[in-house]
Amino acid sequence: MKSKFASVARLFSDALYPEACKCIACGKELNAAREFSLCPDCGTALEYNERFCQTCGVHMEDDAQYCQSCKAGPRDFAAARSACVYTGTARHLVVSLKNGNGWIAKHLAGILSARYPYDDIALDFCCAAPIDRKRLRERGFNQAALIAKELCRILNDENRNGKHDNERKSEIRFADCLVKT
Q: 81: which residues sit within 8 A by CB, 6+ positions away?
């Protein structure tokens, strides 16, 4: 009887908290809590964005500080960052998020938070890249907004818990960026 109850409990747990039991990238069983809910193979397969444009955050193949687009003229934002190169595991996670697995956003935000020291950035708000209206209607959500909201939550929790040395007193807010199309 106990094993049947355990099986039913596991099914409910998997349905409610899929990332607690399995790797969010490959689905492999996790026998212990893992950072970002990734198995060792998928965790090491993430290609972190070590060389990036200092303005837009795009991955750079060389040691240049700015990509050609940012060199060509000013941008409408101060800075953007990408924690990972959009290949392999990172690409799989983003595609999965876009296909309706919204719970992955908190893990992607966790990777962003862990990857970049926000102590030296005067961050007042986080916003997501806008999404085309047609795509928003099709998908029903903006995946970048889900990540940005989770990033705000993580950074605010870290500030409240004294993880950062900055003197921030106010919450970092999420700002929904609207673009006239």
A: 49, 52, 57, 112, 115, 116
pLDDT digits (tens, 9 = 90+) for 10-51: 555 555 555 568 899 999 988 777 888 899 999 999 998 888
Where do we find the tokens 């837009």?
Answer: 56
Model pLDDT for residues 61-107, shown as the tens digit of each residue: 999 999 999 999 998 887 888 889 999 999 999 999 999 899 999 99
Distances (CA, A) of 129 to 19, 65, 93, 146: 26, 22, 18, 11
Buried b (16+ CB within 10 A) or exposed e, 48-75: ebeebbebbbbbbeeeeeebeebeeeee
Q: Output the CA–CA distances (angstroms, integers) from residue 93 to 36, 68, 89, 104, in the order listed.
A: 11, 28, 6, 7
pTM above 0.90, yes or no: no
- Residue 131 corresponds to which tokens in the numbers above? 């999404």
